[in-house]
Amino acid sequence: MNDLHATRLDLLAGGTDARTKMERAIDISRSAACQHVFTRTMFDEALQASSTSDPASRLAGLAFTAKDLFDVEGQATPAGSAVLAHAPAAKADSPAVARLRAAGGVLTGRTNMTEFAFSGVGVNPHHGTPANASDPAVPRIPGGSSSGAAVSVASGAAFIGLGSDTGGSIRIPAALNGIVGFKNTARLTPTAGALPLSTTLDTACAMTRSVRDAITAHEILAARRVTAGNAPLAAYRLAVVKNVFFDGIEPAVANAFERSLKMLRAAGARIVEIELPELAELGAINATGGFSAAESYAWHRLLLERSGAGYDPRVAQRILRGATMKAHEYIDLINARRDWIARVEAVLAPFDAVLSPTVPITAPSIASVAPGAERDEEFFRVNALLLRNPSIVNMLDGCAISLPCQAPGELPVGLMLWHAALHDDAVLAVALQTERALQE
After folding, report:
1. How many CA atoms lie within 13 A of 106 on its CB side?
2. Domain 1-279+344-440: which CATH number of 3.40.50.10260, 3.90.1300.10, 2.10.260.10, 3.40.190.10
3. Active site residue: 21, 67, 260, 402, which one?
4. Which is catalytic among the residues 169, 210, 292, 356?
5. 67 is known as an active-site residue
6. Which UniProt keywords apply (predicted)?
7. Which one of 69, 155, 333, 376 has the largest count of C-beta atoms within 10 Å of its C-beta?
8. What's residue 440's pLDDT?
9. Which of 145, 198, 292, 402 is catalytic?
10. Taking the complete model, does pTM exceed 0.85, yes or no?
11. pLDDT of 91 above 90
């Protein structure tokens, strides 16, 4: 499946046209592969826009999708919920949507998501759950919360899936669907016009088919240029953190990760193993509920009073945990995080990037975690495993990218490259070289 860059070159060379590509994207969007992917589509408008697009623009009239929590002018912003289905229409596009459109992208639809973005599994009891694109034989979870956005990219329905990442909501579905997901340093991209989960941790970002496409999407969303360079892997110093990230890891994920390290070392990478004992502190730091519970409850409390029966019970349960956090506990959390970040940054300072499994498991079946009280225990077990590794980067206020690293015929496995805040360009530079090494 060609990425955005290759397709754009084909357009410029006259080998195809944007309308033809849009017709193909819409056909896929309407197929069984994209069942439950969209909460709303704009196919007629998309065909018209692609017909008059500029092939020299950065996105060249090609398809992108937007997670259901981003404002689109003239539409409600339900965020995967039933209780906001009839909310007032947005008066303008969110900056993220507007920037992708201004760069020549064509929005084909709003994508399904975990209700209010509060889960890494991707199950939605209101709109159905889109099946992972990797396994047509067994309907597997897509990962969340940007579930539909991931499947839209992995299936070929879009080149860019705009989403958000609060504790892994871009990287988890990217890893489980075998695509690329880049979570930039949060402050670099605007979250205005996006319904919040945690104003402290939310990041507007995207999933793509390649690292070079991830760079393009980030440059558009952040209105900045990435300086990635073209240095070989040997020019970078990389670390592997051995504690926490590998707890409960499935053999398939462990094997794919170790195979990836072997391939990177063969390509010249200098990789050292380090301990990061500060990770053991996160449980105590977040013991009173963490930022997502407190900040989501602040936003939802009145809506819960009016319409709580309409919420996904699993989501409501997590939001309501924020009701018990006291003001001094929230301030203590802010201060503890600031101190923790400083100490972790000091440990990571000698390195250009850290390598970890994005998540420690492959995608389980939808049936095993589908809505129902009898499956709640398994749902929350899977959710905790999926969020554990990527959420460390959010707590660090860092940046991270997930790349597919499985062998042909295997279920998708994500390799995460990450670092502290504002190391985005270095992480992307290493990711470019890593992607090449893994594909050789």
Report:
1. 30
2. 3.90.1300.10
3. 67
4. 169
5. yes
6. Ligase, Transferase
7. 69
8. 86
9. 145
10. yes
11. yes
